[in-house]
Design brief:
Two copies of one chain form a homodimer. Chain A is of the alpha+beta class and about 200 residues long. Chain A is about 55% helix and about 10% strand.
């Protein structure tokens, strides 16, 4: 069975779009999806950016919000911009905790359900997914014990796994998210999801 | 008749893809295309970049070349990377002269033919379109007098028009190319060409 790796950062708006589309696409193909959370922060830092490119470049950021409004409407999924409790801008959310929980889920078999639930809460409802209480609520909703899981995120092996996967992403030439890899063939952006599937179909 | 503005910089690889697709898309719709050459240089400078983002970020640049290989193959159009005469990298080409010639063409009715011929020479054959001889050859091929045209590019009104159009692009929120606008609605990237057409169809 062919494997397509879906590289995502929980802070990324366009990863939300892809996560919501992946299940359907995967169902209609014989491609196995590997859900790969990683951190864009260190990658953007290496590009000289201290935050998301959408915050560094105001015009690009304003466009992305408009683009997301149009694309979520097309996909018929909700869209609510992340805000702080005082109403100020909450983008990008810190994705470290959610990424570690997802890696626990990858080991225990619920990474897909968790990932989709996090993206839906974050960009569909505006939830603060950097918050442990929010993550706990999401875990409860998908039937996973939050206390035990949050404890596991503090294990050295999970922390190390996230660092290693982020380094692996860099080695694969990944510079943004979502990215899709089939072996060493790289596709960047939600707009390339179908192309990545097509590539996986014909890959050796 | 609805108008879709196609904002392009002659140095941009993805603008090549859109230029090659526009004619066909326009023929099958009742949308008028306005060909708008402008300069990304000042816009990238305002973002703190001294060259193309594809040169500033090596991984992004390497990916773009691979992406272009795949996309030109899909579109069945040739792709040859711009090189200098000594074999060193020729990307991005200086697009100032070609942009001014295109603006002359916009006044005289041959902007589309010229634009497509330049992109084909640049990225289909690797030609150095910053060179006046190359531009002259292209003009001859499309049946335009090169000497008279090159003289017109030196007129203050053409130079001023390019500056004004670039400023207009910034006011429209444009931060990269290709971009497409229908009124003030902005679409960025070759991947949004179909969406831009769809928007133009339903726009008031």
């Amino acid at each position: 069975m062919k494997t397509l790796c879906f590289w995502y950062d929980f802070a990324s708006t366009y990863c939300y779009l892809s996560a919501m589309r992946l299940q359907k696409l995967a169902a209609s193909s014989a491609i196995k999806i590997e859900w790969k959370p990683f951190l864009l922060g260190p990658i953007f830092q290496a590009q000289g950016l201290s935050s998301s490119p959408f915050n560094a470049h105001a015009a690009k950021g304003a466009y992305m919000v408009r683009d997301m409004q149009r694309l979520t409407a097309e996909q018929s999924i909700p869209f609510k911009w992340p805000e702080m409790s005082d109403g100020s801008d909450g983008f990008p959310r810190n994705s470290l905790l959610a990424s570690r929980v997802a890696l626990v889920g990858a080991e225990l078999g619920w990474v897909e359900a968790f990932t989709c639930a996090v993206f839906r809460a974050e960009f569909g409802e505006g939830a603060d997914i950097s918050n442990a209480d929010t993550i706990s609520e999401i875990l409860v909703k998908i039937g996973i014990d939050p206390l035990e899981t949050l404890k596991l995120t503090q294990s050295p092996s999970i922390k190390q796994k996230l660092r290693e996967d982020t380094e692996r992403a860099v080695l694969l030439g990944i510079f943004g998210a979502p990215s899709f890899t089939i072996g060493e063939e790289l596709f960047w952006g939600n707009d390339r999801l179908e192309s990545a599937f097509a590539w996986a179909q014909i890959a050796e």
